[in-house]
Design the sequence.
């Protein structure tokens, strides 16, 4: 900063610390609540310090879930979430890389038409066309399956555009050199484009993994079989009960939030890159 | 739209490369959207056996229907509340972090992680701390004489979902504001302070105007977020209640279609929402073009 004002610095730290506290408070409460027994939570007001039932609650949620609320063990739901998130991420990245490659490195009929078809997906979020999409998936017999959970969500205009932008910045000479050396299109894609795109792929991977992991409405409507419940939607089953077992709900919330939060904390640079570039 | 100067010849390969993306888009995006358009012009009888063509009747009914008009106004309140709250907090935090030197990256890390938390979980977390019987916040509010109850009071429920939605979005806005602030040339600020402008004056006369592109971009993104990505927050907490006080448009599409089984009306609502998304996307793209020249 341009001038030194000790008081201003102190105030700035106070603002930031309260900001951090505000942001962390709900999660702190969840962690605390997940370490108490239900009766401990229900008597009077919420405790603000951890209790002694943590291991018990987490083990119970992990191994057996809340069967009378229709929630299977968290281990199963976390595994389902992981499969779904990975399928969505890998699917989105691969089909977007291929289509960006086609759009940038080939001239063919109906190129603009295809470009617009892909562009349209930006404008049709699943929430707004939920019922007809559900009907399509039901007609294709894809309810209660990992294919149904992931394939309808893997079309991605943003990833295609990002890769297109990136491919346009790759020098023309790369392709010329490759062609002189006799590399065909697939070899060029595999041995030159892919290695050059690693950072972009990684950055998008982080964003899309979080997107896939946090899916809610889609798994909620197309899974009726608890074997396919994902953790984020499974939690809703537990809270919609008459008297939710809050200590187990909160244990599940902490377990559901942990993987994507860890991804952000450990890959913060890739995350920021992915976020700022996909949205521009 | 350009390609490379030199391209590969290809009769079949480009189509094969595009096929997966285009097939998924056609089956799961374009076809359902067409179905929604088509169904919005039909009315099914009570057993779903026959449907008759009714033209724009479904749309006309929606706008005569008090609950749809209510949903529109609820959505406006929710979107404006969420956007203003999370952008204000994020701008305050970003401009404060930006004056830090050594602690900047620590604070940034501590502020960005909520981005990873699913909207549904954000809803459940705030639902829990505001729980009228065991929550911590109602307990504190009671000490100052306010009886919090989002189960009966529509305004309490609205505040609750706004808090949850805004909380989740703070980290996103924070990152973009911080990037915007860091792109402002330091020399401008130094020049102003040599001329004796106080930090507050510098903020309002230099920093804030130069942030306009970022602010405008975030406004659009936040409105889109509040309108379409917050389904989970509503569904996991208030379910549109009490008495439809938090029944935002995307939630109503789902509720009328899946729970109420009124397909014609739900399809008409889908079509209206698509029009809104298209409009917002256009605004966003127009603006991006302009920002490149900025």
Sequence:
């Amino acid at each position: 900063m341009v001038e030194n004002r000790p008081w201003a610095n102190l105030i700035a730290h106070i603002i930031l610390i309260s900001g951090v506290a505000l942001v962390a408070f709900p999660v702190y409460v969840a962690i605390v609540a997940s370490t108490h027994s239900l009766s401990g939570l229900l008597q009077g007001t919420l405790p603000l310090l951890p209790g002694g039932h943590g291991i018990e609650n987490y083990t119970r949620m992990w191994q057996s879930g809340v069967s009378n609320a229709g929630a299977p063990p968290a281990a199963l739901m976390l595994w389902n979430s992981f499969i779904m998130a990975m399928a969505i991420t890998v699917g989105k990245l691969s089909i977007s890389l291929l289509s960006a490659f086609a759009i940038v490195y080939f001239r063919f009929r109906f190129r603009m038409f295809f470009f617009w078809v892909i562009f349209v997906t930006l404008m049709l979020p699943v929430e707004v066309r939920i019922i007809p999409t559900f009907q399509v998936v039901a007609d294709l017999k894809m309810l209660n399956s990992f294919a149904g959970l992931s394939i309808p969500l893997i079309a991605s205009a943003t990833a295609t555009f990002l890769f297109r932008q990136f491919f346009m910045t790759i020098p023309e000479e790369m392709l010329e050199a490759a062609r002189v050396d006799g590399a065909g299109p697939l070899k060029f894609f595999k041995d030159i484009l892919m290695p050059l795109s690693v950072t972009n792929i990684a950055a998008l991977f982080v964003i899309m993994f979080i997107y896939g992991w946090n899916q809610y409405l889609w798994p909620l409507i197309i899974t009726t079989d608890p074997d396919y419940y994902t953790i984020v939607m499974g939690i809703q089953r537990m809270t919609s009960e008459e008297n939710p077992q809050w200590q187990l709900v909160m244990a599940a919330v902490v377990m559901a939030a942990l993987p994507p939060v860890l991804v952000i904390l450990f890959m913060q640079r890739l995350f920021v890159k992915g976020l700022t570039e996909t949205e521009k | 739209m350009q390609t490379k100067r030199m391209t590969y010849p290809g009769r079949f390969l480009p189509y094969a490369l595009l096929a997966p993306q285009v097939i998924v888009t056609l089956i799961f995006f374009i076809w359902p959207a067409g179905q929604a358009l088509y169904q919005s012009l039909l009315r099914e009888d009570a057993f779903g056996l026959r449907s008759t063509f009714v033209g724009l009747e479904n749309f006309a009914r929606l706008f005569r229907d008090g609950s749809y008009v209510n949903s529109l106004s609820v959505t406006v309140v929710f979107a404006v509340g969420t956007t203003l709250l999370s952008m204000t907090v994020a701008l305050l935090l970003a401009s404060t972090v930006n004056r830090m030197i050594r602690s900047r990256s620590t604070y940034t890390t501590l502020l960005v992680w909520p981005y990873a938390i699913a909207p549904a979980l954000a809803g459940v977390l705030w639902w829990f701390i505001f729980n009228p019987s065991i929550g911590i916040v109602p307990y504190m509010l009671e000490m100052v004489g306010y009886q919090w109850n989002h189960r009966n009071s529509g305004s309490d429920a609205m505040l609750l979902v706004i808090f949850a939605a805004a909380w989740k979005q703070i980290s996103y806005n924070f990152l973009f504001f911080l990037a915007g602030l860091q792109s402002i040339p330091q020399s401008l600020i130094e020049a102003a302070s040599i001329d004796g402008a106080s930090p507050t004056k510098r903020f309002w006369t230099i920093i804030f105007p130069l942030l306009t592109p970022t602010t405008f971009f975030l406004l659009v993104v936040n409105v889109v977020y509040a309108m379409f990505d917050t389904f989970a927050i509503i569904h996991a907490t208030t379910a549109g209640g009490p008495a439809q006080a938090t029944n935002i448009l995307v939630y109503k599409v789902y509720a009328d279609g899946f729970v109420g089984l009124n397909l014609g009306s739900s399809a008409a609502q889908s079509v209206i929402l698509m029009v809104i998304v298209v409009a917002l996307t256009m605004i966003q793209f127009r603006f991006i073009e302009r920002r490149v020249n900025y």
